[in-house]
Amino acid sequence: MKTAIYPGTFDPVTNGHLDVLERASKLFPKVIIAVSENSEKKTLFDLEERMFLIKKNVLKYNNVFIGSFKGLLVEYALEQNASVIIRGLRAVSDFEYEFQMAQMNRHLEEDLETLFLMPNEKYFFTSSTLVKQVMKYTDRPLQLIPSNVLEALKKKLHN
Question: Which residues does the annotation mark as catalytic?
Answer without folding.
Answer: 17, 41, 90, 128
